[in-house]
Every structure is written in structure tokens, then in C-alpha cells.
């Protein structure tokens, strides 16, 4: 019975790591474009794979471009009321993003994007993947041991 609990705990840890790893593998930035600003205009992400979800809440066409990267994020400018999503890969660092529609950058439609490296994403040395996985394993172990005690299988301390 104890062997089965150990196997279940290990399997739960692997499943937790897989789901948490998928959640950490990509960062999503949701923003609005209005005349003449992005909301939010300062963005921090913990992954080099970044998905931009842009909603044009203004009257004029808008898009996103990043200094040092060719082209716009979206293939076509978004007209008033349109939304779009696109995923790009960026190296860790700080980037300036702006609206490439003529005149919009000059009017202040600019923002800052910071892409953290894997080490920088670990706040105070705590790995954002391992902490939830360890807590999941601990929770399953505690639930399993409580179940075994209730059934009278496990010796009481």
C-alpha cells in the first residue's frame, strides 16, 4: 500500500511539472491601443516566447513594432474595434515597442517590454516551476497519509 502511495506521488509530481512547465513556457501580454498610447505601456514577461493580444480601442489603425526587430507584430494594422494575437520569440533584455503607423510613435505611442531570462525569473532563488510542483506532491502525500491512517493501514506516531 505504501508503494502505491509513492508511485501515485511521483506520477502526480510529473503531471504537475508538465502543466506548470507549459504555463511558464509562454508569456501573454494583453493590451489596448488608443490614441496615442498603449495600455499598459510597461510590460514584464518571464519567458522568451511572448504572445501579444492587442485590442484597438481607438479610432485609427494601430499595430506593434519592436526596436531591433524587422516588421510589425501583426501582418496588417488593426482597425478600430479589431483584435488580434501573435506570438514572437525574443532574447532576454529590455525592448522599446511602438506603433508603426506614421505619426503615432512621435505622438507618444511607445512602451517598454522587459523579457527576463530563466534565472532572473526566479524570485529570490525560488524556481517558479518547482515550487508549485513540490507543493502538489506534498499535498498529495499528506492527503494519502491521512487516508491510510483513517483506514488503519498506517501506524500512528
Average the pLDDT over all residues and give the rounded result.
Answer: 80
Rg, nearest Å: 23 Å
Which second-level CATH architecture of the domain at 24-115 applies?
Sandwich
Order of helices and strands: HEEEEEEEEH
| Through-space gap between termini | 18 Å
Described by strand count, sense and barrel closure, the largest sheet is:
4 strands, mixed
Identify low-pLDDT runs: 20-24
Given helix and strand content, the structural type is alpha/beta
Tally of alpha and pi helices: 2
Oligomer classification: single chain
Total strand count, please? 8
Helix fraction bin: 25-40%
What is the third-level CATH name, the topology of the domain at 24-115?
Answer: Immunoglobulin-like
**What is the level 1 CATH name of the domain at 24-115?**
Mainly Beta
What fraction of the residues are assigned to beta strands by DSSP?
Answer: 25-35%
CATH homologous superfamily descriptor of the domain at 24-115? Cupredoxins -  blue copper proteins
